[in-house]
Amino acid sequence: MSPAGEPLPDDWLERLATVPKVARPKHLSRFAVPDEGGRPSAVLLLFGADGDGAPDVLLTQRADTMRKHPGQVSFPGGAQDPADAGPVEAALREAQEETGLDPRGVDVLGTLPALYLPPSGFVITPVLGWWRTPSPVRAVDPAEVASVVRVPLSELLDPANRSSVRHPSGYVGPAFEACGLFVWGFTAGLLSRVLSLAGLERPWDRARHVPLPDRVLALLPSPTVP
User: Looking at the whole model, is its pTM more than 0.85?
Assistant: First the structure.
C-alpha cells in the first residue's frame, strides 16, 4: 500500500487524457444503455490544479431539498436540452449554471461511453475536461447546489480515505471521504474507474466496509411498500 501523501506522477494529466481513448462501457458500468428510451444527460469531470500546481477535481453537493438525490455529492451536469449541440455543450452549460464556471477556461479532453442510470432513467455521457484557466466558482442557486468544492486528488487517492459502502438496495460500491464530503454512488463509482484507467489509483483495502453516514441515510427515499 502506497504511503499517504505520495505525490502524483508528473504526467498525471496526460494519463487522464488517455482515458477517453481506452474506456469501454464495461469498464464504467454494469448496466447496458437501452436501445430505446432514457433521457440524454451529461456530467463534467473537470480536473484542474491549484496555485501550487496540486491537481484537483470539481465536485458539487446537491441541496438537501432536491427531489432527486438530495444532499449527494456529484459532478456538475444534468439533462441535455434540445438547444444543446451535444453532451459537451450540455455539460459545460450545466456546470456554468450550477457553479458559475467560465467554460472558456476549459479544454475538453474527450467524452466517455454513455452510461445508463436505471433509477432515474438518465443516459449520462461523462465529459472529461482540463481546467486550463480556473475561474471563481460558487453555489449559484443554493436551492439546487449546497456547495462547490475543488477536491485535491491527493486526498481522493489516499488509501486511508477510501472504502466500500453498501447501498440499502444491496449494491456495494466504492466511497471516498475528502474535504468533509462523503462521495458514494454513481459519482464515486465513475471517479474510481476513471482514476484506475488513468493508472493513478493506489492500492486500497476494498474489504474495508463503512456504513453510510447517518446524514446520508436520513436523506434517502423511504423504501416503497408493496
Answer: yes
Across the strands, what pairs with 163?
175
- The pLDDT mean for the chain works out to 91
SS3 labels along the chain: CCCCCCCCCCCHHHHHHCHHHHCCHHHHCCCCCCCCCCEEEEEEEEEEECCCCCEEEEEEEECCCCCCCCCCEECCEEECCCCCCCHHHHHHHHHHHHHCCCHHHEEEEEECCCEEECCCCEEEEEEEEEECCCCCCCCCCCCCEEEEEEEEHHHHHCHHHEEEEECCCCCEEEEEEECCEEECHHHHHHHHHHHHHCCCCCCCCCCCEECCCHHHHHHCCCCCCC
The residue with cell 442510470 is 117
* pLDDT score for 3: 40
CB atoms within 10 A of CB 25: 15
State the distance between the two ends of the chain, measured CA to CA, in whole angstroms: 46
Band of the pLDDT at 32, cuts 50, 70, 90?
confident
